[in-house]
Design brief:
Blueprint lengths: L3 H14 L3 H9 L7 H8 L14 H14 L6 H22 L4 H5 L6 H9 L2 H4 L1 H20 L1
Helix pairs in contact: 1-2, 1-9, 2-3, 2-4, 2-9, 4-5, 4-9, 5-9
Length: 152
């Protein structure tokens, strides 16, 4: 298992190397949750850009929630586990929203990347690197905090 600084650093490195926001958060959290990194990167591939560049839930959020689900989730029907996971997910969403203002790409970026002209504006303003990298790091920090707190 890697320490928490290394995890956030890895998330940033993945993102700067060209992985999408979801791959960067889920891939970096993979070691923390004992999941093969390659598997995490593949699973998260279509979730970038607000789920396949559709401007929905931020990919960094999706990736972190996948990591929390993998770590705390159930693989058989279990009512108490289901509701515990909803509670964990809600806690994550609340903390991310408190920190960044929302979990939806257009609200986070101030542009709707589903619209070609606004997608180009986001690229021209380098928002994917200047803002999205912060969302990736923040999502990972929040997920790590939740994992550590629930492990105690």
């Amino acid at each position: 298992m890697t320490d928490n600084y290394e995890i956030t650093n890895q998330a940033s490195q993945y993102f700067m190397a060209g992985y999408n926001c979801s791959q960067s958060s889920f891939g970096a959290l993979a070691n923390k949750i004992d999941l093969d990194t390659s598997t995490a990167l593949k699973i998260a591939a279509p979730f970038g850009g607000g789920i396949s560049q559709n401007g929905s839930v931020c990919g960094a959020v999706s990736g972190a929630l996948m990591a929390l689900g993998y770590h705390f989730g159930n693989d058989r029907p279990n009512r108490s586990s289901k509701y515990r996971n909803y509670e964990i997910g809600s806690q994550f969403l609340q903390e991310f929203t408190e920190r960044f203002g929302d979990v939806i790409c257009p609200k986070l970026l101030g542009l709707d990347i589903r619209k070609p002209d606004e997608l180009q504006q986001a690229r021209d303003q380098d928002l994917f690197h200047s803002l999205c990298s912060q969302f990736v790091i923040g999502a990972v920090e929040i997920a790590v905090k939740i994992i550590d707190a629930k492990e105690k």
